Amino acid sequence: MKEELMVGTMMTPKAVAELYGVTSQELAQWRRANLGPPYFMLGRNTVRYDSGDIEDWFNDPANGYLHDYPAGR
Q1: Range 10-64 has CATH code 1.10.10
Q2: Which of 37, 64, 65, 67 makes the best surface tag, with the fewest CB within 10 Å?
């Protein structure tokens, strides 16, 4: 896990995009298609991701076809 993140930390799509090398637009597309990592809607336009869920999702080889983030990083 990234040292600067604690499990249970809520992350914005922008923070996830910067940390994992994807774009906010990709995350939005994945949400619409029900393909991406689990997320929370905290309001009509407020999306947050749990840092533990994000790390697990990006390190799962089954999701590798959607992104270039290397598993086990």
Answers
A1: yes
A2: 65
